[in-house]
Specification:
5-stranded mixed sheet, single chain, 9 strands, 4-stranded mixed sheet, 6 helices
Protein backbone atom coordinates (compact mmCIF):
# COMPACT_ATOMS: atom_id res chain seq x y z
CA UNK A 1 0.00 0.00 0.00
CA UNK A 2 1.08 3.62 -0.41
CA UNK A 3 0.67 6.79 1.64
CA UNK A 4 1.00 10.41 0.57
CA UNK A 5 3.19 12.23 3.09
CA UNK A 6 1.99 15.69 4.25
CA UNK A 7 4.49 18.58 3.91
CA UNK A 8 5.27 18.81 7.63
CA UNK A 9 6.37 15.14 7.73
CA UNK A 10 8.61 15.09 4.64
CA UNK A 11 11.89 16.26 6.16
CA UNK A 12 14.56 13.62 6.58
CA UNK A 13 12.82 10.96 4.47
CA UNK A 14 15.00 11.21 1.35
CA UNK A 15 16.86 7.93 1.97
CA UNK A 16 13.89 6.05 3.41
CA UNK A 17 13.15 2.78 1.55
CA UNK A 18 9.95 3.12 -0.47
CA UNK A 19 9.84 6.93 -0.42
CA UNK A 20 9.52 8.88 -3.68
CA UNK A 21 10.76 12.42 -3.01
CA UNK A 22 9.15 13.75 -6.19
CA UNK A 23 5.61 12.50 -5.63
CA UNK A 24 5.95 12.46 -1.82
CA UNK A 25 4.45 8.98 -1.78
CA UNK A 26 5.89 6.19 0.35
CA UNK A 27 5.24 2.56 -0.53
CA UNK A 28 4.91 0.35 2.54
CA UNK A 29 4.36 -3.26 3.52
CA UNK A 30 3.97 -5.23 6.74
CA UNK A 31 5.51 -8.29 5.11
CA UNK A 32 9.22 -8.58 5.88
CA UNK A 33 9.82 -10.64 2.75
CA UNK A 34 8.67 -7.86 0.40
CA UNK A 35 11.28 -5.29 -0.63
CA UNK A 36 9.81 -4.11 -3.95
CA UNK A 37 6.45 -3.93 -5.71
CA UNK A 38 5.42 -5.42 -9.04
CA UNK A 39 6.95 -2.49 -10.92
CA UNK A 40 10.32 -2.86 -9.22
CA UNK A 41 9.86 0.13 -6.92
CA UNK A 42 11.44 -0.02 -3.47
CA UNK A 43 9.03 -0.82 -0.63
CA UNK A 44 9.62 0.00 3.04
CA UNK A 45 8.74 -2.25 5.97
CA UNK A 46 6.26 -0.58 8.34
CA UNK A 47 7.54 -1.88 11.65
CA UNK A 48 7.67 -0.41 15.14
CA UNK A 49 10.93 1.39 14.37
CA UNK A 50 9.76 3.04 11.14
CA UNK A 51 10.24 6.84 11.19
CA UNK A 52 6.61 7.44 10.19
CA UNK A 53 5.40 5.33 13.12
CA UNK A 54 7.57 7.42 15.45
CA UNK A 55 6.19 10.67 14.02
CA UNK A 56 2.63 9.43 14.35
CA UNK A 57 3.25 8.60 18.02
CA UNK A 58 4.71 12.06 18.59
CA UNK A 59 1.66 13.58 16.92
CA UNK A 60 -0.67 11.68 19.27
CA UNK A 61 1.42 12.77 22.24
CA UNK A 62 1.22 16.44 21.23
CA UNK A 63 -2.54 16.18 20.86
CA UNK A 64 -2.79 14.47 24.25
CA UNK A 65 -0.80 17.05 26.19
CA UNK A 66 -0.91 20.18 24.06
CA UNK A 67 -4.69 20.05 23.55
CA UNK A 68 -5.58 19.82 27.21
CA UNK A 69 -6.86 23.36 27.46
CA UNK A 70 -9.31 22.85 24.61
CA UNK A 71 -10.76 19.85 26.46
CA UNK A 72 -11.08 21.93 29.65
CA UNK A 73 -9.01 19.44 31.70
CA UNK A 74 -5.90 21.59 32.21
CA UNK A 75 -4.65 20.65 35.70
CA UNK A 76 -2.53 23.77 36.16
CA UNK A 77 -5.25 26.09 37.55
CA UNK A 78 -4.02 27.65 40.80
CA UNK A 79 -6.91 26.88 43.13
CA UNK A 80 -10.41 25.41 43.10
CA UNK A 81 -13.10 24.52 45.57
CA UNK A 82 -13.58 20.79 46.04
CA UNK A 83 -15.38 18.23 48.16
CA UNK A 84 -12.60 18.03 50.76
CA UNK A 85 -12.86 18.53 54.55
CA UNK A 86 -9.72 20.67 54.76
CA UNK A 87 -7.20 22.32 52.41
CA UNK A 88 -5.36 19.76 50.32
CA UNK A 89 -3.05 19.65 47.33
CA UNK A 90 -3.40 17.86 44.01
CA UNK A 91 -0.04 17.40 42.31
CA UNK A 92 0.38 16.07 38.78
CA UNK A 93 3.42 14.19 37.46
CA UNK A 94 4.57 12.86 34.14
CA UNK A 95 5.89 9.30 34.23
CA UNK A 96 8.14 8.53 31.29
CA UNK A 97 10.11 5.67 29.77
CA UNK A 98 12.56 6.64 27.04
CA UNK A 99 14.88 4.86 24.68
CA UNK A 100 17.76 5.98 22.50
CA UNK A 101 15.08 6.63 19.90
CA UNK A 102 13.08 9.02 22.11
CA UNK A 103 9.91 8.80 24.21
CA UNK A 104 8.38 5.33 24.39
CA UNK A 105 5.78 5.71 27.17
CA UNK A 106 4.32 8.73 28.92
CA UNK A 107 1.60 8.68 31.55
CA UNK A 108 0.17 11.54 33.60
CA UNK A 109 -0.44 10.64 37.24
CA UNK A 110 -1.90 12.74 40.04
CA UNK A 111 -1.46 12.59 43.80
CA UNK A 112 -3.96 14.08 46.24
CA UNK A 113 -2.31 14.76 49.60
CA UNK A 114 -3.41 16.15 52.95
CA UNK A 115 -1.52 18.19 55.52
CA UNK A 116 -0.74 15.06 57.56
CA UNK A 117 0.73 13.28 54.52
CA UNK A 118 -2.16 10.99 53.58
CA UNK A 119 -1.77 10.46 49.83
CA UNK A 120 -4.01 9.02 47.13
CA UNK A 121 -2.48 8.19 43.74
CA UNK A 122 -4.61 8.49 40.60
CA UNK A 123 -3.29 6.57 37.59
CA UNK A 124 -6.05 7.71 35.24
CA UNK A 125 -7.01 11.28 34.39
CA UNK A 126 -10.67 10.25 34.62
CA UNK A 127 -10.17 9.78 38.37
CA UNK A 128 -8.91 13.28 39.11
CA UNK A 129 -9.93 15.63 36.32
CA UNK A 130 -13.15 16.57 38.16
CA UNK A 131 -10.92 18.51 40.58
CA UNK A 132 -9.66 20.63 37.67
CA UNK A 133 -13.04 22.12 36.83
CA UNK A 134 -12.49 25.71 35.61
CA UNK A 135 -15.97 26.61 36.88
CA UNK A 136 -14.74 25.98 40.44
CA UNK A 137 -11.62 28.11 40.12
CA UNK A 138 -11.17 30.69 42.89
CA UNK A 139 -8.86 33.62 43.55
CA UNK A 140 -5.51 32.60 44.96
CA UNK A 141 -4.86 35.69 47.06
CA UNK A 142 -3.11 34.61 50.30
CA UNK A 143 -4.28 31.00 49.90
CA UNK A 144 -0.77 29.54 49.69
CA UNK A 145 0.59 31.54 52.62
CA UNK A 146 -2.44 31.01 54.86
CA UNK A 147 -3.12 27.31 54.20
CA UNK A 148 -0.22 25.52 52.50
CA UNK A 149 3.16 27.17 52.98
CA UNK A 150 3.93 25.50 56.32
CA UNK A 151 3.47 21.94 55.09
CA UNK A 152 3.62 22.03 51.28
CA UNK A 153 7.32 21.22 50.83
CA UNK A 154 7.12 17.95 52.76
CA UNK A 155 3.84 17.13 51.00
CA UNK A 156 5.44 17.68 47.59
CA UNK A 157 8.31 15.33 48.44
CA UNK A 158 5.89 12.68 49.71
CA UNK A 159 3.68 13.05 46.63
CA UNK A 160 6.69 12.70 44.33
CA UNK A 161 7.69 9.45 46.04
CA UNK A 162 4.11 8.16 45.82
CA UNK A 163 3.93 9.03 42.12
CA UNK A 164 7.19 7.20 41.45
CA UNK A 165 5.93 4.16 43.32
CA UNK A 166 2.63 4.28 41.46
CA UNK A 167 4.29 4.59 38.06
CA UNK A 168 6.74 1.73 38.60
CA UNK A 169 4.25 -1.14 37.99
CA UNK A 170 2.98 0.64 34.86
CA UNK A 171 6.52 1.05 33.59
CA UNK A 172 7.46 -2.55 34.46
CA UNK A 173 4.49 -3.94 32.53
CA UNK A 174 5.28 -1.72 29.57
CA UNK A 175 8.97 -2.65 29.58
CA UNK A 176 8.18 -6.36 29.61
CA UNK A 177 5.68 -6.03 26.76
CA UNK A 178 8.02 -3.83 24.75
CA UNK A 179 11.06 -6.08 25.20
CA UNK A 180 9.01 -9.13 24.22
CA UNK A 181 7.70 -7.34 21.12
CA UNK A 182 11.16 -6.15 20.13
CA UNK A 183 12.56 -9.65 20.55
CA UNK A 184 9.83 -11.03 18.29
CA UNK A 185 10.57 -8.40 15.66
CA UNK A 186 14.30 -9.02 15.92
CA UNK A 187 13.73 -12.76 15.46
CA UNK A 188 11.60 -12.02 12.40
CA UNK A 189 14.39 -9.90 10.94
CA UNK A 190 16.92 -12.70 11.46
CA UNK A 191 14.61 -15.23 9.80
CA UNK A 192 14.03 -12.84 6.91
CA UNK A 193 17.77 -12.37 6.42
CA UNK A 194 18.36 -16.12 6.45
CA UNK A 195 15.60 -16.64 3.91
CA UNK A 196 16.94 -13.96 1.58
CA UNK A 197 20.48 -15.29 1.99
CA UNK A 198 19.29 -18.76 0.98
CA UNK A 199 17.50 -17.29 -2.04
CA UNK A 200 20.60 -15.45 -3.23
CA UNK A 201 23.49 -17.73 -2.29
CA UNK A 202 21.82 -21.11 -1.96
CA UNK A 203 21.62 -23.30 1.11
CA UNK A 204 25.25 -24.31 1.33
CA UNK A 205 25.55 -25.66 -2.22
CA UNK A 206 27.92 -24.08 -4.69
CA UNK A 207 26.28 -21.65 -7.09
CA UNK A 208 27.15 -21.22 -10.74
CA UNK A 209 30.50 -19.53 -11.31
CA UNK A 210 31.25 -17.78 -14.60
CA UNK A 211 33.92 -19.87 -16.38
CA UNK A 212 36.74 -18.57 -18.49
CA UNK A 213 36.83 -19.05 -22.24
CA UNK A 214 39.21 -22.02 -22.06
CA UNK A 215 37.73 -23.75 -18.98
CA UNK A 216 36.63 -27.33 -19.50
CA UNK A 217 32.88 -27.93 -19.14
CA UNK A 218 33.61 -30.53 -16.46
CA UNK A 219 35.41 -28.03 -14.23
CA UNK A 220 32.29 -27.06 -12.31
CA UNK A 221 32.22 -25.42 -8.96
CA UNK A 222 31.25 -28.69 -7.36
CA UNK A 223 34.61 -30.19 -8.43
CA UNK A 224 36.67 -27.09 -7.85
CA UNK A 225 37.50 -25.28 -4.64
CA UNK A 226 34.61 -23.65 -2.86
CA UNK A 227 34.36 -19.87 -2.74
CA UNK A 228 35.16 -18.41 0.71
CA UNK A 229 31.57 -17.29 1.30
CA UNK A 230 30.33 -20.87 0.83
CA UNK A 231 32.04 -21.87 4.08
CA UNK A 232 30.18 -19.23 6.12
CA UNK A 233 27.01 -20.08 8.06
CA UNK A 234 26.19 -16.62 9.40
CA UNK A 235 23.85 -15.07 6.78
CA UNK A 236 25.19 -11.52 7.22
CA UNK A 237 28.80 -12.64 6.83
CA UNK A 238 27.84 -14.89 3.93
CA UNK A 239 26.08 -12.11 2.04
CA UNK A 240 28.94 -9.66 2.68
CA UNK A 241 31.48 -12.15 1.33
CA UNK A 242 29.21 -13.05 -1.59
CA UNK A 243 29.06 -9.39 -2.60
CA UNK A 244 32.86 -9.31 -2.95
CA UNK A 245 32.94 -12.45 -5.14
CA UNK A 246 33.35 -11.11 -8.68
CA UNK A 247 32.72 -14.58 -10.11
CA UNK A 248 29.04 -14.06 -9.30
CA UNK A 249 26.71 -12.04 -11.49
CA UNK A 250 26.60 -8.31 -10.88
CA UNK A 251 22.85 -8.39 -10.30
CA UNK A 252 22.97 -11.04 -7.59
CA UNK A 253 25.95 -9.40 -5.89
CA UNK A 254 24.19 -6.06 -5.60
CA UNK A 255 21.00 -7.79 -4.50
CA UNK A 256 23.01 -9.34 -1.66
CA UNK A 257 24.45 -5.94 -0.76
CA UNK A 258 20.99 -4.34 -0.77
CA UNK A 259 19.50 -7.03 1.47
CA UNK A 260 22.37 -6.72 3.92
CA UNK A 261 22.12 -2.92 4.01
CA UNK A 262 18.37 -3.07 4.66
CA UNK A 263 18.85 -5.65 7.41
CA UNK A 264 21.51 -3.54 9.11
CA UNK A 265 19.27 -0.47 8.97
CA UNK A 266 16.39 -2.35 10.55
CA UNK A 267 18.58 -3.84 13.28
CA UNK A 268 20.08 -0.44 14.05
CA UNK A 269 16.58 0.94 14.54
CA UNK A 270 15.66 -1.98 16.80
CA UNK A 271 18.86 -1.49 18.80
CA UNK A 272 17.88 2.13 19.43
CA UNK A 273 14.40 1.08 20.55
CA UNK A 274 15.83 -1.66 22.76
CA UNK A 275 18.06 0.78 24.64
CA UNK A 276 15.34 1.46 27.21
CA UNK A 277 16.17 3.81 30.07
CA UNK A 278 15.06 3.65 33.68
CA UNK A 279 11.58 5.08 34.34
CA UNK A 280 11.49 8.70 35.50
CA UNK A 281 8.81 10.86 37.07
CA UNK A 282 8.74 14.64 36.64
CA UNK A 283 6.48 17.25 38.29
CA UNK A 284 3.88 18.95 36.12
CA UNK A 285 1.64 21.16 38.26
CA UNK A 286 0.07 21.89 41.65
CA UNK A 287 -3.59 22.58 42.34
CA UNK A 288 -4.78 23.92 45.67
CA UNK A 289 -8.02 22.30 46.83
CA UNK A 290 -10.15 24.36 49.19
CA UNK A 291 -13.27 23.09 51.01
CA UNK A 292 -16.55 24.12 49.47
CA UNK A 293 -18.52 26.66 51.45
CA UNK A 294 -22.17 25.72 51.94
Amino acid sequence: FSVTIPPQWRHGLEDLPGYDSKSHIVRLTTDLTVTSDGDGNSVGFLGRAHPLVRRALDRVRNLSFGGAAERRDDPRASAVTANVPNPQLLLTFLGRVSSQNGRELERVLAVQITENGEATVFESADDWRTFADPDKAIRTTDLWVDHFENWAQQAIETASAEASQGFQPIADAFLKERRDALKRERDQQVKWLQSRCDDITGTGRATHVQRGLFDEPESTTARGPRAPWQTLDDPAERLAAYFTDRNQSTGSRFEAEGVLRLYEQRMKQLDALSDLREPEVMPLGILMLMPEVN
